[in-house]
Amino acid sequence: MAKMQNLFSLTKKKENISAQTYPDTSKHISSRPRHIAIIMDGSGRWATKRHMPRLAGHKAGVTALRRTVECAANENIELLSVYAFSTENWGRPRAEVDGLMRLLWESLRAHLADLHRDGVRLRHLGRLQNLSPDIQQAVRDSVELTRNNTRIGLNVCFNYGGRAELVDAIRQIIADGRCPESITEELIASYLYTRDLPDPDLVIRTAGEMRVSNFLLWQSAYSEYYATPTLWPDFGHEDLLDALYSYSQRKRHFGHRTSADDES
Ligand code: FPP
Questions:
Q1: What's the gap in Å between 33 CA and the centre of ligand 1?
Q2: pLDDT in tens, 166-220
């Protein structure tokens, strides 16, 4: 653990540079997303390439996550949502599932104090009730401790599935006795895990994959999408700036177009 913490502080120093130092000065980032969501893919491949067990890749993924939270906060991003364990990931080999569960628990225990010190507000998105009691408690404690932090919000999607989220919402809507006429997009959104959060403006997927993988299905209806070949454990400040630059080049219409859009 001490080795891992040293690694964190080293990376933090190296990565802690402001937007103005983006090496390619022609790449001016004119508009920024409020909310970035990340599908952290490629940790298994990262480990396999190094002849290491897959779990070593996931551990390196936690380091990359800590680094990315710091970079995103320094880039004035308000919210970061990360896909750490999907409802489908239960289908992985038992040892990997157990390892990911342990990693969540250990990561919260090891990094909660510094996340709190650094102004990170933690939140969990997903089905907490299916996780072990000690994990549920660690998650609740972390959310409670950091609830008033304002530098950046970190939403950890753990045991999260976009379809499961809709199922949970629909069950609750029915349980609340809502009549069909009252069902609107706003009402459905108010029953999602993300009820009080803005939709993600930008979804980043690492490791070159081009799939949505059941991540924030409702919320990403009009998100901009950015895929990078970088494997998640290698993701760093440059990768984040590349994604921010790409985002700032996009024109968002949300399905509406005006004649001014056609002229530009
Ligand atoms: C997908 O890559 C990644 C996961 C299923 C786990 C992601 C989790 C982390 C990065 C760290 C966990 C974070 C916390 C907060 C505990 P993959 O395993 O499918 O990689 P591959 O496609 O290369 O096999």
A1: 24
A2: 999 999 999 999 999 999 999 999 999 999 999 999 999 999 999 999 999 999 9
Active site residue: 89, 168, 199, 234, which one?
89
pLDDT higher than threshold 90 for residue 37 = yes
Give me the percent of the chain exceeding a pLDDT of 70.
Answer: 88
CB neighbours of 15 closer than 8 A, spacing ≥ 6? 67, 70, 71, 236, 237
* Domain ranges within the chain, ordered by starting residue: 27-161+200-249
For the stretch 213-257, pLDDT in tens is 999 999 999 999 999 999 999 999 999 999 999 999 998 888 887
Q: Is 89 a catalytic residue?
A: yes
Rounded to 10 deg, the angle between the 133-146 and 94-117 helix axes is 20
pTM, two decimals, is 0.89
Query: Is residue 112 within 8 Å of residue 62, measured between CB atoms?
Result: no
Mutate to test the pocket of ligand 1, among 87, 160, 232 (most ligand atoms within 8 A of CB): 232
Question: 168 burial class (0-12, 13-18, 19+ CB within 10 angstroms)?
Answer: middle
**Chain-wide mean pLDDT for the chain?**
91
| Matching CATH number, 27-161+200-249, of 3.40.30.10, 3.40.50.300, 1.25.40.10, 3.40.1180.10 | 3.40.1180.10
Mutate which of 40, 146, 209 for ligand 1? The one with the most ligand atoms within 8 Å of its CB, which is 40
